[in-house]
Amino acid sequence: xxxxxxxxxxxxxxxxxxxxxxxxxxxxKETIGQLGHRNFGVGFDQLLLVEKSNTxxxxxxxxxxxxxxxxxxxCGNGSRCFARFVFEQGLTNKTEIAVETAKGVIxxxxxxxxxxxxxxxxxxxxxxxxxxxxxxxxxxDPLIVAGQVHDISVVSMGNPHAVQVVQSANDxxxxxxxxxxxxxxxxxxxxxAGFMEIVSRTEIRLRVFERAAGETLACGTGACAAVVAGIxxxxxxESVLVHTRGGDLRISWAGAAQPVMMTGPAVTVFTxxxxx
Length: 276
Ligand SMILES: N[C@@H](CCC[C@H](N)C(=O)O)C(=O)O
Fold this sequence. Notes:
Layout: E1 2-10, E2 13-19, H1 29-36, E3 46-52, E4 60-66, E5 71-72, H2 76-88, E6 99-101, E7 104-110, E8 116-119, E9 141-145, E10 148-156, E11 160-165, H3 174-182, E12 192-200, E13 203-210, E14 214-215, H4 220-232, E15 239-244, E16 247-253, E17 260-264, E18 267-275
Parallel strand pairs: 2-3, 4-6, 11-12, 13-15
Antiparallel strand pairs: 1-2, 1-18, 3-4, 4-5, 6-7, 7-8, 8-17, 9-10, 10-11, 12-13, 13-14, 15-16, 16-17
The structure holds the ligand N[C@@H](CCC[C@H](N)C(=O)O)C(=O)O.
Ligand LBFN2T5F binds near residues 46 and 213.
């Protein structure tokens, strides 16, 4: 089977994006893992599969897979690339799109300046919604990692995040502690581990060790989760510029029961086809 795809990125978090509306696509976990390989495949952090939606009022459905082939619930940088993809490919002429993911509907909007703004939905904090083993919801939970207590804030943006505040994002032990947090037994479905440096009430630096993908140059849901965690801790204002290794995102959150808004770029690098 020959598969047409676009290679895209959002701040260096890179994607293979496949049109499953005009192509019949069947992908096993193994095939996704092979396609994701940086030496033997196309290479990506996540694969995005765009499909038709059967729900009235919803334009598309899109599925998200980590580079190991595991399917995940949500992807911030991916949602912006999804919107750019369906527009560029002529799958829609709408600039405001409603798209179903495995964890609800999100609303990307293509801006006149080339950025994409996404209503990422309402963040969740209850341990059962992460999922996280804890007796009750808290703003800060102590987590023992490498024999030391780390103060984490757990946030679900559809997918699970554990965010901690560090003195310096640059010097944070992301490669050492990231996998320990990702696979910590208190997170039965694993977790994305965020390391946030507070620069000011309106600016942070962030690195994220992503579940099943390792540290990426940027993580959109990780940025949403970090800003929400910082606001809940009383450290950040409502609108925050997030510096990632791949570039900047603007994240805003007006507080409890409100959706998180994310604005940033989405870039097509090339289109191609591959025999699978
Ligand atoms: N890069 C993404 C998040 C992708 C999914 C994540 N690795 C998970 O397993 O939850 C983003 O931009 O949000």
